[in-house]
Amino acid sequence: MPGWHDSTTEWREKGQLQTAGIVLEQHPDRARLFMQWKQLDWPLMVEPFNILGFTAVPRTFLLDEHGVLRMIHPRLDDLDTAARDFIERDFAPPSGEAPTLDLRPQTSGAAPADAGGWLDRAMSLAMWGEASQLDEALAAAEAAIALEPSDRAHFAAGVIARMRYDSEHRQPGDFAQAAEHWATALDVGPNNYIWRRRLQQYGPRLDKPYPFYDWVPTARDEIGARGEEPVELSVEPGGAEFAQPAAAFEAASATVTAPDPDGRIDRDDEGLVSVESTSIPPAAVPGDPLRVHVTLRPDATAGAHWNNEMGPTQLWVDAPAGWELEQPLFEVDLPPEEISDEPRSFEFEVRAPSDAAGEPVPLSAYALYFVCDDATGVCMYRRQDLELAIPIRAASQERLIDPHRR
Amino acid sequence: MTDTLQEPSANAPRIELGQPFPNLVLPAVEDGSPRSVADFRGQKLALHVFASW
Q: Which one of A15, A65, A187, A223 has the lowest number of neighbouring Cβ atoms within 10 Å?
């Protein structure tokens, strides 16, 4: 896309060609930052659901002055031949009208008649409604799935669940629910690279085709150096979204001591901190890694916040027998303020043994943190245990890891 | 991977050479206001469907 764009500057400057983009990602403001970095100023439209059912991105379409599609994926080789002919020709108007896909809310409140109608309603509410309508949007996507469990409906449900996770209307388990839906979308449509990429965005390094958002810090630096303010991102990318692909899974070799091996630290029985964990993929493929995301949040309704002067927030992971960990102990960087209440996230990778089978395997971990109770003003060192039951995929099921990388 | 443009089963208008491109109405990334592929008629258009990763 950039090569083709750079080579068509002359046509754009002469007013012979305009450019627009449709952004097909979960967080479209990242595309805005990308465009600012690359100094591209085309109009961008947001399309998080893959409404047209594309099997991969990027795709480039050349439309004539009447909106008729004349070329798909023009190549640099075409510039002096087919593409030039497209630019210079005056096309006749088409005989038929373009089909319109307008999902803005309709005034009629009638219940949709079929799966397609429910899916349209789900996408309409999520794209055009308020964040408070994401519950209704997710329910509509689930209604579509109940009638017809298509990959598009599962993908849409995953996108909506992740939207809600990123909103103030977050409910426990939203990210895990998104991961489940995305994994099911890929099971139903294994050739769709948009479904596959969404799991890879958050998944293990062995399954990554490339780091997804590692360009963000460079972009911000370069934009700042130009004296501009970088576009603010609603959700900061991190962890898996920055991680480099790995060619092999490297199990931890050094012996690291557990911070609380005998469980002597008091548990957070007051529930001052909530913990949410999500495994990507949601089920383990024997012999393959999965990436577990753990997020700790001080419970604002319980009046809790972090104390950043007393010590680190840690996560210790105990691998089940036969499972391998890249690293068992994790710490988050503390902010400079004395107190804060931001979510704290850990990501770790664990590999299932190649003969894993049968019942879900319990994966145990615990978090250690310094949390303060606003009501009493007391700060405490607390431990919270978490256990994830990791389902094992049957050997007959398709491997999630991209077969083209093997 | 087969280089099919759209999912064969997708319940969506087909994209075909020589046919009008579906007139999608979508929120603009800056402010969420409605924008349509048809807004660009009158001049030739390069339409990129992409993600920033």
A: A15
Out of B20, B24, B49, the one facing A58 most closely (by C-beta) is B49
Write the residue in A34, A69, A152 that is nearest to B52 by C-beta: A34
Q: What are phi and psi of A51, to 5 degrees?
A: -60, -40
In angstroms, the Cα distances linking A297 to A173, A306, A334, A367 are 13, 9, 14, 12
Report whether pLDDT(A221) > 50: yes
What ipTM goes with this model? 0.94
- The structural domains of chain A, ordered by start, are 115-202 (1.25.40.10), 246-405 (2.60.40.10)
Confidence of residue A52 (pLDDT cuts 50, 70, 90): very high
Phi, psi of B16 (to 5 degrees): -135, 145
Q: Name the band, by pLDDT with cuts 50, 70 and 90, for residue B3.
A: low
CA distance B27 to chain A (A): 6
What pTM was estimated for this model as a whole? 0.93
Using the beta-carbon criterion (under 8 Å), do B21 and A193 form an inter-chain contact? no
- For residue A154, give both structure tokens: 């599962």
